[in-house]
Design brief:
elongated, about 90% helix
Length: about 150
Amino acid sequence: MNEHLGLWFLQLAATAILVGFIWVIQWVVYPGFSKVGSDHFKSYHAFYTRRVSLLVFLFMVTELAIAIWIFKRDPGLLWAQLNIASVFVVWIITAAWAGPLHTRLASGAPIEKIQPRLLVSNFLRSAVWTLRLAALVWVLILANPV
């Protein structure tokens, strides 16, 4: 693992950025959806998803690419296996749960019906990403004892 330490630090950086994004979305953005008002929500949601999706997707793809790279370099390493598996968990939650909820909002579904489910699905992603970040810090501490 030590020979690939730079990749692990890149993985840590991408994950840390995503953890920051996801908690801001969880604590500020999604609760704020109900404050927009039904007359303007559809256009606000379109604005929000265009901008946030671009940023989040860029870092999610980066995180995935680095996880694949780490795994390909050392597929027998348990940490590499857990790393890539947890990235896939986030992608599955996003594709199977959060994405479809945003599609429903974009098509005009009432925010009051969707917001609670969106908060739950996003909390799961937040939890997985936060655990990933903690695990990556732990891996790097184990790899570089002081």
